[in-house]
Amino acid sequence: MSTRPEVSLAQRKRELVSNELTEAALQLLALKGFDGVTIDEIAAAAGVSKRTFFRYFASKEDVVVQFLAEMGAGIRTELAGRPAGEPPSVALRHSVSVSVAACAGHSDRALRVVQLILGTPALHARFLERQAHWRDELATELAHRLDLDRATDLYPQLAAGMALTAFDTVLQRWSGSDGAEDPAVLSDRAFAIIAPALDRAAQA
Amino acid sequence: MSTRPEVSLAQRKRELVSNELTEAALQLLALKGFDGVTIDEIAAAAGVSKRTFFRYFASKEDVVVQFLAEMGAGIRTELAGRPAGEPPSVALRHSVSVSVAACAGHSDRALRVVQLILGTPALHARFLERQAHWRDELATELAHRLDLDRATDLYPQLAAGMALTAFDTVLQRWSGSDGAEDPAVLSDRAFAIIAPALDRAAQA
DNA sequence: CGCGCCTTGACACCAAGTGCCATGCAGGGC
DNA sequence: GCCCTGCATGGCACTTGGTGTCAAGGCGCG
Asked: Which of A45, A75, A184, B112 could form a cystine bridge with A24, CB 3.0-4.6 A?
């Protein structure tokens, strides 16, 4: 077969169902709002049962939030790939910019998903919680990069938090302007503001 | 009667029930964990019905999170009260320090509540969402203080976000050390790191 | 062919919320 | 004193998110 033989049929089937589910969910949720759609509806639209839905996603929020989950890992791996000598502000700016650009460029669906998240308290809450995990991972990566001790030094945690604050602000502006404002420009402006703390404090 | 007559009896009754409810909730939740307690249990412990519980709190998370809600408003009013000439880093540091100190000094119950929140994903999510509101209000206050335009300038939003990141980090350390580390010291250390961005960018 | 593994659907079940209505209690006017 | 109005409550039914359990079906493998 032309499709990679090293991936088992069962796994490809799993992925197919998962895609069908997210597809149906995003479509319906964007159309009727988060509370206007039941899980049964989503499952039915994807041609599976409610029980199966929960075998793929832990909660209703999860379908939406997991759609953006790759971004978190993306930022971290991007950061890990930056040259070692680069100042934190530059490394972090690139890491965030690349990820947000990848998301924004993907399709205008990303925009609608972000707007849905930011406009739905329950989704926003879950999204922020996931961001908290990103922050932790970013902090670890930063500590490793700069050879700092996370247990005593507050810098890694704060720097990661600042970078994600910038990320958040960019997302908010971007979705608020209906995609009109350029995420890359917004990122640069945001990081220009927080950079003094990112770099000056690193060598303290 | 000695109790202020300008407050109607009905209102005092409402407050009494509300207190009873939070009391019962915090006690039970700290004891058996967030998922180990049902609303019926909490309501029964407070001597009311489940239906009445939801007339006082919007959700199970709300009881816990609202217990710390005053802090958000506290930070903002504290900021509003700082002298106009004060640099943002100092004003924000004081605003956050005072609020967190008020919380920490209140009782060791505050510590247990914070630990409960940070250790329970559902609660943490709600807490972060509430913080997002604080950030918005703080940003507005900052924009007003510095006579900036929130619609164009990214600084207010970012500065508020950085301050709350510091706040978050302090809370995390404080709860992680079981209250051993001094919140005031932690706040100072955190703000020392973010201050360069807070002050330098303000006059850009 | 027959044997296990994995996925699914169906069903029952619990807990979070919500709408609705009846009841009871306080205060205010007559 | 009596009624009437407003409000807080409780009980109840109902929807929905989410989970445990079990039986049935497809698929690979010897």
From this structure: A45
